[in-house]
Amino acid sequence: MKITPQTYVISDHHFFHNNIVEYAKRPAEYIGLLIKNHNKVVTDNDKVLFLGDLSFANKEKTMDVIGRMKGQKCLILGNHDENTIGWYEDLGFQVSEPIYKVFVNSAGDYPTLLTHEPVRDLPKNWYNIHGHIHRGVVTEFGLSERHFNASCEPLNFTPKPIYEILADWKLQRKK
Q: Residue 100 domain-assigned?
């Protein structure tokens, strides 16, 4: 899948995780909320990059949920994604290693790593779109303004297009 600024990102769905409602302070109906919010912004032709920790259920239950979500899907495996690559491909995902991509806008170049876990030792002038930390603000974890937490909780359970993240980083550069 070609990643562009129009690609959506989101992470840490944790479908059917028994403790996620309590751990991440999610509403009990979070699965329905994730599907509804996803389909409000994503069309069948859009690309969505899932940054890991997809599901704790079997293939049939996971397929039922993923099958109701629009878009072309790519998955970067997270620390809880323990099935085979073929298992995720059967769900309709292209599975990828972490991605390095240079995005360009009017403020310049944004060398960006797309990962599940945040990259703590980012090279100077690099950026990181990641998940893993759920409700946390990146500064609480010793991360910088060049990190963007794409976990579903801070995104209000809605995928976000990369160009909006780049616009935020552009504003930060002007400060």
A: yes
